[in-house]
Amino acid sequence: MELRFLEKEYWYGGYVTEGVHQPYGKESDAVLDLTQNSTPNQAAPLFLSTRGRWLWRDHGFSIQFKKGVIHCPDDVEIGESGDSLRTAYIGAMKKHFPFHPCELSPQLFQAPVYNTWIELTFHQTQQAVLNYAENILKNGLPVGVLMIDDGWSDHYGKWSFSRESFAAPKQMLRQLHEWGFSVMVWVCPFITPDTLAYRELEEQNLLVKNGCGEVHIAHWWNGWSAVLDLSKAAARGWLDKQLEELRELGVDGFKFDAGDSIYYPADGEIGPDEHSRLWAAYGERFHLNEFRVTAKAGGWSLMQRLCDKDHSWGETGLAALIPDTLIQNLTGHPFCCPDMIGGGEYRNFLSQALLDPELFVRHAEVACLMTVMQFSAAPWRVLPAPYFDKIKNLVQLRNKYWEEINRAIQLCRETGEPILRPLEYEFPNQGWAQVMDEFMLGGDLLVAPILVKNANARRVAIPKGRWSWQDSVIESTGIVLEITVEQGDLIVLRKL
């Protein structure tokens, strides 16, 4: 099927990791294969147009945007609702991914979330976790949700604290609770081979198999593992038992990692994307959850993080945060987190000399008025004192705007509308479709972080209307204005 672009039409959607290349316009030349999620982030078989149109097919599809013509399969649904990006989103959302009741805990949103990964990597121990939490408090940051990442158990599939590394996990959890933290732990659907858990699950036929009927062994970032088959009630029950024991011990929720479609067999009884969806569906029941990758889970009650970003200024790092987050929101994943502040790729933090304090602060500026703000690398350790002071100021700025953040979250819970929106969503047909480096928080706040090294000013697209900035009022006819700020200050305009 060939579909021609309308006048001044742009398209958004598909893969969240492609946000840096979107929207697609008449001059675009791009090919995407959505038949299976090949990325480490969220995917949706959906594209939305600034002229009120949408494209959807339940099982994904290949698509090409080429010089004003869209090529896609004949059975892709072309929908139409109104004449704007907002009306296209609402029409597609109501028909194809209506929102589930959001049961996520408010704790994920108000205070920062803290993750032990960058500080401890695979060396998670009871004392190290307690030290990390205690230093959060000693250094003047607020309590929040604390995630204990990969390495707290002896092997994958045995979801209990390592006796060698965690001598008294119940006491540790009690102490963390007394300090005010809620605690999540990292889990994945993988099962380490040559373990009792593997033998037990293999005997019960609860592991994913390939087309030859053999247990599928996935090659993932930590080696080789079998994969739990969550299409089977007994497998879900097996995992239920372990996670319930952790909850009885004092664990409050879970970071559900992996579940990437690429780690499931292409020739199994169930397709890779469906296995990925089953992992997400399993985790949705928990009020404290986090997912990095899902396939067609738009509208679900999941806190969904951007995939690990480099500690860099470019499109694999800081420059990707806003555009990828906007595509998350437009594809139904609004309860989102722009990765761990400074970047989630731990190898970038192995040498203090390679860290850029300015970049760390700029990442915090992007995150502080987004839906979830998450730290991992300890800012009090990696930053000189003046830069750490800027981080604490940004946490306070989040508190200042919490009412607006919470209002946008509550509206999303009620209506399914995005929390973070491109300008085109809120101000259609004013010429802002290609602005992907600033965002609207709900309908009232325009947020424009600085994203260039050694810069203290940026050009800000300001839609038509009256806006307040600091102590002045801007009467905009649809202008681009150069605004200068100090490092650690954030450009936030309020619509009047």
Task: Give an overview of the whole structure.
With 496 residues, this protein is an alpha+beta fold. The protein is built from 13 helices and 29 strands. The strands form 8 sheets. A 6-stranded parallel sheet has the order 18-17-13-10-9-21. It is globular. 51% of the residues are buried.
Please, what is the oligomeric state? single chain
Number of strands: 29
Q: So how many helices?
A: 13
Low-confidence stretches: none
The percent range for helix content is: 25-40%
What general outline do the C-alpha atoms trace?
globular
Residue share in β-strands: 15-25%
Widest sheet: strand ordering = 18-17-13-10-9-21
Question: What's the average pLDDT?
Answer: 97
Work out the radius of gyration.
23 Å
Structural class, from secondary structure content? alpha+beta
Gap between N and C termini, in Å? Answer: 45 Å
The largest sheet is:
6 strands, parallel
What's the helix and strand layout?
Elements (H helix, E strand, L loop, with lengths): L1 E3 L6 E5 L13 E5 L9 E7 L3 E4 L5 E5 L2 E3 L5 E4 L4 H12 L16 E3 L1 H4 L5 H13 L6 E4 L4 E3 L2 E4 L7 H11 L2 E6 L2 E2 L4 H8 L13 E4 L2 E5 L5 H17 L3 E4 L15 H12 L5 E3 L12 E2 L12 H13 L5 E2 L19 H12 L5 E2 L3 H4 L2 H16 L1 H14 L4 E2 L1 H4 L12 E3 L3 E3 L9 E6 L2 E5 L2 E5 L2 E6 L7 E4 L1
Parallel strand pairs: 9-10, 9-21, 10-13, 13-17, 17-18, 19-20
Antiparallel strand pairs: 1-7, 2-4, 3-6, 4-5, 5-8, 6-7, 11-12, 14-16, 15-16, 22-23, 23-24, 24-29, 25-28, 26-27, 26-29
